[in-house]
Every structure is written in structure tokens, then in C-alpha cells.
Amino acid sequence: MVIRKRLHWFRMLFIWEGSILPQILPRLIALFLLSTAVVIFHGELFRFKIPLTPAPFTLIGLALAIFLGFCNTASYDRYWEARKLWGGLLIDARSLVRQVQTLGDAEKDHKDIREFANLIVAFSYALKHQLRQTDPTADLARLLKPEFAKSLENIKFKPNIILQELGQWIYRNKKENKMDSIVQVAIDSNLNRLSDILGGCERISNTPIPYAYSVVLHRTIYTYCFLLPFGLVDSIGWMTPCIVSFIGYTFIALDAIVTEIEEPFGVEKNDLALNAICRTIEDSLTEMMGDKIDLKPASNPFIID
Amino acid sequence: MVIRKRLHWFRMLFIWEGSILPQILPRLIALFLLSTAVVIFHGELFRFKIPLTPAPFTLIGLALAIFLGFCNTASYDRYWEARKLWGGLLIDARSLVRQVQTLGDAEKDHKDIREFANLIVAFSYALKHQLRQTDPTADLARLLKPEFAKSLENIKFKPNIILQELGQWIYRNKKENKMDSIVQVAIDSNLNRLSDILGGCERISNTPIPYAYSVVLHRTIYTYCFLLPFGLVDSIGWMTPCIVSFIGYTFIALDAIVTEIEEPFGVEKNDLALNAICRTIEDSLTEMMGDKIDLKPASNPFIID
Amino acid sequence: MVIRKRLHWFRMLFIWEGSILPQILPRLIALFLLSTAVVIFHGELFRFKIPLTPAPFTLIGLALAIFLGFCNTASYDRYWEARKLWGGLLIDARSLVRQVQTLGDAEKDHKDIREFANLIVAFSYALKHQLRQTDPTADLARLLKPEFAKSLENIKFKPNIILQELGQWIYRNKKENKMDSIVQVAIDSNLNRLSDILGGCERISNTPIPYAYSVVLHRTIYTYCFLLPFGLVDSIGWMTPCIVSFIGYTFIALDAIVTEIEEPFGVEKNDLALNAICRTIEDSLTEMMGDKIDLKPASNPFIID
Amino acid sequence: MVIRKRLHWFRMLFIWEGSILPQILPRLIALFLLSTAVVIFHGELFRFKIPLTPAPFTLIGLALAIFLGFCNTASYDRYWEARKLWGGLLIDARSLVRQVQTLGDAEKDHKDIREFANLIVAFSYALKHQLRQTDPTADLARLLKPEFAKSLENIKFKPNIILQELGQWIYRNKKENKMDSIVQVAIDSNLNRLSDILGGCERISNTPIPYAYSVVLHRTIYTYCFLLPFGLVDSIGWMTPCIVSFIGYTFIALDAIVTEIEEPFGVEKNDLALNAICRTIEDSLTEMMGDKIDLKPASNPFIID
Amino acid sequence: MVIRKRLHWFRMLFIWEGSILPQILPRLIALFLLSTAVVIFHGELFRFKIPLTPAPFTLIGLALAIFLGFCNTASYDRYWEARKLWGGLLIDARSLVRQVQTLGDAEKDHKDIREFANLIVAFSYALKHQLRQTDPTADLARLLKPEFAKSLENIKFKPNIILQELGQWIYRNKKENKMDSIVQVAIDSNLNRLSDILGGCERISNTPIPYAYSVVLHRTIYTYCFLLPFGLVDSIGWMTPCIVSFIGYTFIALDAIVTEIEEPFGVEKNDLALNAICRTIEDSLTEMMGDKIDLKPASNPFIID
């Protein structure tokens, strides 16, 4: 959980790191150079005057607004739903540990509960690795019993099998008469919620916004921007490169942000800080088990983790 | 679950397969030819000058924006709700198998549970076939007991009867004292969720966006596009065909995408990959039953399945 | 559940039945005649020139866009929520019958369950009749026991009393020891959902979009349309009647659609097919009782039922 | 529950009662007079020509659209959520009475259940009075036992204490062995929903849309409207007063509607008909208790009650 | 819960306190001075004429509308979700106390229940202090047992550990046979809801709107505003400073509001009144315990608390 201090509005105008500018700068420079050339040649291409006015751009702008507005909202919804799912993971992890510690009236076995908590933490890390397509072996080996960690190696849907193991844990407790059916079902309903979270993340990860949207959006934005100097040069003359770069900046930056947050489980600057959330889950459960945790906050707020 | 690698923005400008362009190309060519004719005849039709300016198009554009924006959002909501329902099917399938494997304290009968899992997989395939109006016989024969598969032949709402059979399965287990009422009700509440998914898919499939919207939207878009050259020819001259085709491309492409995703259960390029989801459900339950599955990913990401 | 085959985009341009055009044609003709008169008199009214330009229409258009966009979204949300509630009715009807057939471990009395299923079907028909303010007597007489159907005659909230009778059914079963408290409560929670559906439909039916919106929207649309020819005649001359009729068509059509779907329980062309849904519920429960149903689909997809 | 018959579109143009017009007429007259003065003095103020054109108004219009669109949506969401909460109150009231009548297998005490139903009705009235800050004494005296009604006098959160009394009712029944824990908890979960409704209404009532929005919106609308004649007088001359009043009408009317429905629990024309809903709850529960109710509908549909 | 009386529309135009104006005044004055200079120098900068027209601003306005509209909606959604979570805290607090007072059939220990209620109130205060990063020691010392308050000092996630203690309370009651499993689980499900509220608040607090949005939005707004006088000076002359300040006011004010409510847990004027909500929770539970509370309302409605 990365905490970013809010900047003063004035400083924010000149920030470099954390902004989307570095990434899109080459495109903006190309746009600026084209505009300058258009100004120098008075909008002529091989002595043919390109007869454009601002009017058609207002009409194109309409379609662009619908596309950009929609893709932006849809991407942000994906981003925010992904964040909610991972927030739900933290919530459920805590609820599950609280439940195994306090439901029923049997004496509680601290070591057994720690195993249960470790399974939940392992579930979080396994989910993170599945979504980022990285190797979970180290994290799983640290948290799980060797034989179970070993058996996960050839498994495709690892978090799901860990979830099944959580079910086995309550089954063992039920068999040993440490809980009755009512308590078992109450805990199981929180396992269902973990299943919801897993399936929700897989859905966002596997189903992008329909591909055709992105293609049409890209084409519209770039055609619009590279035609724009021809449309403005007759009315605003040598200001064309500045204004075109500025308009280009807003559209291309929005497009770049949309592309980043559309897949919120990546490791780009504006993606979700999954590592930080996994550590928060681990810390929070550690505290609930009565152990000390490290209280100092994360260092660099711009490092997505 | 189809995973598409994200393309570089520049390559995306020139992609052919996977874009909506091939489908709408004839209309765009017609639009281009009309615009060229308008340029050649200076906007005259049988020597009558059509006296149009860009101004009315701004006014029409307003209505168009409301229609297109609305239809686009409504279609995407249907698409995404459909995807959520099928994601929920995967979630519930796993939860149900976990529940029959771990709830209660009775010894678990592996073969009996496999029958239960097969019923769930059959439910998925039957739902897919119902939504696509294809023949489910082969899939059902593979997964169900012969007599039950046979009895489904004259059934209209097949997934619903399979769901009833899942209920019969827990009824038998309860009668054999393998679970108590509490466990039975907990499993039954996940059957209710399968019922929700079934009903939700039927609702999306059977109730399109009110027909009048599509009619008015189509008429507005095509009238707009085919009047546009007359409005632009006086101000932008020989650029008219390019600009009109470009504006036409954005509107007609958006309209085509909206038409495709409005019915998300079809087999067009931007529809949902129901086959892939059915296979994922089958694979996931197979793993939970302790069996091996094929780990290699799907081959061609553009084949909707 | 009415299934409409998707039309080719080109055929859709010239469709008559199923479109909103027949209904608004008189208004469009009036608009066309007015525009023609304006062209003939060069925008003068009793020799006074009306000095309008397109500029004010852009400003009015802004308010119009907010109003129309909002009323459209709000109406469609009502329509879609109503559809979801009726979809939920189908879902719950099936879930309830499945529950009384498979929960607990008592022997099931087929005839008693059929009575329960009939009560649910009667609930659907009674709700439909209440929402459409039609007479439910025939449907209720067909489905309910004579004395109970008789007792409903002087009842204002009929579906609610049928719901109470469903509760009495499980009360009788509990008293006869055919189910325990756990099963009874599980079934009762689906009766709560029927209560939600009933209340949701009543809410949509009894609380329209605040009246003031419709009044202002109507006034804005018609004033806008009937002033428009004066604003366009100076720039587009004899094209004014065509363009004004076209713009008028888009706005007035949208307004007419909004008015229709705002009250989704009516019997107009774009309203919900409540009869078809009631029949689907009846068919689906009949199948679950093990009886045959008629498999042929509904005939005319444009008849709202 | 007020039922308004839908008016013909033409009659709606000239309606007076039920529209927002009477309320904003003085402001529109002021706007009309100002515009007339501007026309007479040719846009000069003390011989200084105010050099405005329509262009800046398009730019301001953008901000105005964002503000108005947002405030309108946010207000309507509050209104509709409030309506849903009160609809939920009717739903829950019925569900609770059905539950105490039919859950468990004990003999039902009609008089005791009537007391329970009266508590629910009293909850509705107490909530209405709390939201409208009116005196609930008469309604509570009519419905509650004298000593309990008396004890509520010095209570700040009256509906909450009535809810607690509903809890005490099921506690007494449980103690007298008329229900088991399972039934008690099932009824209690509907009491939780009443608590949700109470808290939801308090939230809407106590937290308006952030104040700064309303201030900026008001300032933008009125500055816009009173500058508008100076911008239009040069292009549309003596039509200025008509057009300015018309544009002013749309914006000021929308603003007035937004202000009314933002606080949906008031007694203005477009607010919620809380009295009618309370009566519906009372009628519906009376019917469920087997008593007769008055079947004739409410008289004047424009009286918010 | 702060109740603000609605102001007359006319008074609202001239309000100072409670508006966003004081905060953004310096920026508006800078904008006014720049515009005045532009008018004086006829849009020349060091004798170079800046050749701008209103046309490019319409194009930029499009991107601005998408950005501002989106950021505004996203911020308000965060604000309103935060408010719902805190409203849910009040709801759950009451439900939990009602449940421990009325579920089951054991005799109720008033002192024990007061301890439970105090834990809930402490949870509220601890959450408030965590979100505002203030010191909770005083509030916790007042409400909790000394040894437990002491043990919380080195805890990072204090509300979560208080929630665990609430779980321990029901565990102790279960062990002492004051409740059965069913009642325990019913209360526990409301503890799960407290966990949801805690996690939801942490999510909003720790995950701002992706940083890149704010940066691009700020840059677009300020570049737009400071270029605007050059674009308007040729058409509206000496009115430029007034109009530019007015347009700048709307955009900068909206941006300032968005920045404030994006982080709804702060102590700025438009943030949530967390202190007031905490007091309401405490008052409401006090009343439920049968004690008197102070009935007079909060004094200054503009003091966010």
C-alpha cells in the first residue's frame, strides 16, 4: 500500500518522474517536428496545398470523445475492480483468521492456526505470481509445507489448489471435532469469497477490452493528431507547433494511461502495487497471530511494487 | 480464456486481422467513391447545387453522440455482465467441488464426487450450447450417464434440469447420511448461484437492447455519413474523400463493434470465448480431482472459440 | 422471451414495423411543412425577418444533450432493472422448486410440490396483472385452489398474499416434520427474494422519473425543432426541410423511445414481454415436475406479449 | 404511491401545475427584461459597447455541461437510492410479518403478531418524521403501547430504539420457546436490513452533495445567463430576449429540479411521497393480518404526500 | 452529521465561507492580471503577435471535458463510497449491539454488553485516527480496558486488532454457554461486515486515482487558462479579463473541489465529518444501553469535524 503525499498544484505542473510524459515524449517530438514543417511549407505537400480547416476536426472530435471517454471509463473500472478484489483479499484474510481463532468454543491450537494463516498468505502470493506470470516457487517454499509446495509445481491453477487445501484444513478440524457444521459452513462461506476474488482477477486478466476498440481508438487519435497541423496552420500560423503538441499531449497521454491501467496487474508505473498488498496481508495476519512486525513505511512512493 | 499479447501502439495502427476493418471496408469504399463524385461535380446533383455547410452536422452530431454513446455503453455492459456471469460459473464450479470434498466430516467417495463434478461441467457445456443454439448431444454424452443424457433430449431448458440433478445428488447424499442439513443448505446456496448465472445468461440472450434504438442509430449514422461530403466539399475541396472516409470509418466501426458485442454469446471475433471458458472449467475441476491436465496454452489468440 | 433475429445493417435502414417511425410521423410531417414554408418566405413572418443563426442552437443543444442523455439513461436503467427483476423471478421460481424437491431427506410428495409450483406460477401472473392493471381472475382460477382464488378477490396486493401462502406451505411441511428449521429457513430466504422482486416492480411502476424532467425535456425538444428552420434557412436554403426533418427525427424518436421504455410494464412495442416470461416460468416449472411442454418457439417476434 | 397518468406529448407542452415553471418564473422575467434592455441599447452599457460574441459561451458551456451533468446525476442517484430504501422498507415489512407467521412450527399467536406488525409500521412513521423533522407523537401513540410510546419521547434516534424493541420481541418469543435459534437468526437478518435502511436514509439526509459544487454551479449558471444577451445581440438582434429566455429556462429549470430532488425527503413537488409509502406499508400488513383495507386510490396525483 | 440549511439561490451567489473561492483566489487574480496585460499589448509578446483564435480551444476543450468529467466522477465516487462505508459503520454498530442484546435466550449481562459496545466505539475512533494519521491514544484509553489499550500501542493495524477482540468477546460468551453456534455465527457475520468497512476505507485511503491523471489534468487546465486570453483578445477586446477569469474560475474551482474530495478522510472543508459520525455512533449506542444523551445539535454547520 503505497502512500503518495499530495503535491501542491504548482509543483505538479513540472513533475517528471511519475508522470506519463517520458513515455510519450518521442511521439510528441515527432508531432512537433511535423507541425514545424507544415508551418514552414505553409501547409503544402509537394506544392499541393492541403485545404483543411478546423471544422472537420470538430466532427472527428465527437467520435474521438465517445471512444476515449468510453475506453477511459472501462479501463478505470477494470483497474478499480481489480483494486477492490485485492482489497477484498486483505479483508477476507483477516476475517478468516479471526474466525478460526474465535468461532466455536474449542481450545485453539496456535500452531495449527498459523499453518492456516500461512496458507492464506501463500494464496495471495500465488495469485500475484499467476497474474504477473512470474515464478511463485520461492514464496511458496517459504510459506508452505515442503511436500505440499512440491505438489503444486505441476499445477496450472495454483491458487485454486491452495484454496482447496484451506478447505481440507477445516475438514480436518471438523473431523477432530474442533468445530461443528455451523462454524465450518461459516468459515467455508469466506472461502467462497476467496474463490470469488480468484475468479474475478482471472476474468480481468484474461479478458481485455474487446480488441477492436483499441485498434480504432489508436487509429483515430494518431490520424487526428497528424492531420491537425494542416487544419490549424492557416488560422494560427507559427503557433501551430505549440498548440498541436499541446493537443497531442492531452490525447496521447490519455491513451497511454488507458493502455497502462487497462491491465492493472502489470508492473508499470500506474499499475497496482500487488507486492505491497501481499506484504500488508502478511503483516496484518502476523499481528493477529500476536507477533511483531516492522512498522516503518515503504520508502519510494513511485516504485510500483 | 484467450490471452492476447498487447501490441506496440505503432504496430496496432497497421493491423488487419482482429480489427473491424475487413468487415466494414465495402461501406467505406462506397463512401469514398461518393465523396470523390461530389468533389468532381462540385457538390452539384443534376446541376442543382446542394447548399450544405458544416454547421448542421454539428447539430446532428449532438444526437449522434447521445445515441452512439448510449448504445456503446449499454452493449459493453451486456458484454461485461455476460463475462462476469461466465466467470462466476468458473468460480462456483470450483466452490461446489471444494464444498463436496471438504464440508461435513464423512469419508469422501472419490467416484461419487467425480460424477458431481461431471454434472457441473455438463451444465457449462449445456449452457453454452443453449446460448449458441448448437447441438449439445456430443458433450452431454461424454460427461453424463447414458440414461440421464438420453432423458435430456426432449428437454427445452437443459441446463436447468442438470441443475435439478445436482440437487438430487445432494439429496441422495443427505439420505445416505453423508451430510447434515447445514452442509446440504450451504451447497444448495451455491446451486442457487448457478441458477442465477443460468437466468442471467438467458436474460441477456433473450432481451436485446430495445429494437428502436438500433434502427434510429443506423439511420442517423448512415444519413450523416452520406450527407457529409456535400457539407465539406466547399471548405476542404479535394481532401473531402479522405476526411469523409476517416470520419465514416470511426462512426461505422463503432457501430459495427456495438452490434457485435451487443450479443456476446455469438461466434464473432469480439464475442466471448465460451469454448475456452468451458475448457478452463473442465481443466480446473480435473486438477481438483487430483488428475493431470494439459498445461500448454491456446494457440491462436484471435480465434474466438 | 422474444427472440429477434438480427437484421443486416442495410435492411434495417428501411424497416417500418418495429421502428418508432410510424408513431412520430405526423410530427415530422408538420416539421417538414413548417420548414418548407420558412424556405418559401425566406425566414420572414408577416414580413418581419426572424434573425436567427446556427450559433444559439449550439448553446441550446448543450442543455438538450444533458436532458436527453440523462432521461435516456434513467429510462433505460428502469427498463433493464425491470427486466432483471423478471429474470430473477424465473431464477427464483426454479430455485424454489429445486429446493422443495431436493432439500432435507424426507420422501417428496409429488402432488404437494405441484401445488407449490402452481402458487409460484400464480404469483408471476398476479404480478403481471397488477403491473398492467388487468384482471387476474382467469389465470388465478386456473392455477389456484378454488377457495383460495376466491379469497383473493377483495385483496389489493394479491401477489403479496400469494407469497404469504407460499410461506404457509412451508409452515405446513415443517409442522408435518417433512423439513427441519434449517431447510425451512433456506427456502424462506428465496421467498424473501420473491418479496424483493415484488417490491422492486412496484417501485418502478409507482415512481416515474420526476415529472418536471419530462415537461422541461418536451418543451426544449419541440421549441428547438420548431425554431430550427429559421436558424438554418439563411445558410443551407432549400435543403432546410430535409435537414430539419432529419434532426427532428433523431430528437423526437429518442424522446418517443424514452417515453415508451420509461414504463417498462406497459404493452407498447418496446416494453417487456411479460406474457412470454410468465409462460417461460410455467414451462420451466412444468419440465421440472417431469411433464412435457410444447417446444415450438413464439411466432411473431415483433408482437410484445 | 402516487400514480400519475402519462400525458400526451402535446398537452405536456402547456401544463402549468406539476411543472417547475411557476417557481422560476420571476428569474426568467428578469432575464427577459434585461435582454430587452440590451436589444434597445444595442449592447451598450453607459455608452460602452460590451464586445461579446457567441464563441466564449461555447467554452463556458463546456464547464457548465460538466457541472450540470454531474450535479444532476448525483442528485437523481440520491433520489433514486432514497426511493429504493423506502421500497426496501415495504419489502422487509412484508417479509418480516410473513416470517413470524410461517417460520418454525409453533402455534401462532395472532395478537402477538399484530403487535409485531404495529412495531414495524411505527418504525416507518418514526423514520418519516425523523427525516422530515416533524413530530411523531400522534402516529406513535396510535401504534405503540402507551408506556413504550412514552419512553420514546426523550429519544434522539427513535426508529433505532423501535428496531431494538423488534429485537426484544423475538427475544421474548425465543425465551418462550416459540422459535429456535435458526428461526430467530433468520428473522434477525431482516432486522439487519431494516437497520441498513435506517442508516441509508440518515446518510442521504445528513450528507448533501459537497457544498462547493452547488455554489460554483449556481454562479456559473447565473453569470452565463445574464452575460448571454450581450453575446447574442449582435447576431440575432430582436430575437435575443426570446432565445435568451429559452436558454435560461432550460438551465435554470434543470438547476431548480436538481435542488429539489437532491434532498428527496422534503415536501416539495418532486420529492418522495413518504406518507403514501407509509400508508401502503400499513395497508399491506393489515391485509396480511387478514383484515380489510380501503381499496380506493389516492385522489390528486400532484399532491406530494 | 452536519446539517446544512439550504440557502436561497440568490444568497448562494455571494457566499464566501464554505465556498472554494478563497482558496483559488490568488490563481484567479494572476489570470486576471495576465489577461489585462494581453489586452493592453493587443496580444503581442515582445512585439510578436500571438496568432490564436477560439477554434483550437474548442478542440482542447474536448480533451479537457473528458479529463475533468472523469476525474470529477471518480473523485465523487470515492467520496460517496467512503461516506457509505462510514454510514455502514453506524448501521453495523447498532445491529451488533441489538444482536448481543436480543439473540439467543440467555439472560443478558448489561455490563458485559457495555464492554462490547465500547469496543465498537473504540473501533470507530481507531479507524478515524488511522485514516487521518492522528494519535488515537486518548480515545482508546477512554473506551478500552487499560491493559488492552496498552497492548495496542505497538500495533500497526489497530482497528483490526480491536475487531479481533470483538471476536474474542463472542468466543468467551460461547464458552460460557451464553450463546449457541448459530447465534455466534450470526454475530460473526456482522463482524465480517466491520472487516469489509475497515478494508474498504484502507483501500480508498491508500490507493489514490492513478497519479498520471492528476498531472495531465493540471497541466491541461493551467495551459488552457493561461493561453486563453491570447485566443479571445481579438474578438472580445477589453471584456477578455472578465471572461477569462470567469472561465478560469469554473475550471480551477472544479479542479480544486476534485482534489479535496478525492481524499475524503482529510480535514478540509468538503471532506467527511468523521468526528461527527464517531459521536453519532457513540450517542446511538449509549441510547441503546438505556442511557441519556445530549440532544442539542452541532453548532456551526461549516466546521468539518
TrEMBL record, chains A, B, C, D, E:
Originating species: Dyadobacter frigoris
Domain of life: Bacteria
Gene Ontology molecular function: chloride channel activity
Family in the record: Belongs to the anion channel-forming bestrophin (TC 1.A.46) family.
Gene Ontology annotations for the cellular component aspect, listed alphabetically: plasma membrane
Residue stretches in coiled coil: none
Cellular compartments annotated: Cell membrane
Record's protein name: Bestrophin
TM annotation in the entry: 20-43, 55-76
Keyword field contains Transmembrane: yes
Keywords of this entry: Cell membrane, Ion transport, Membrane, Transmembrane, Transmembrane helix, Transport
Membrane topology, from the record: Multi-pass membrane protein
Keyword presence, Ion transport: yes
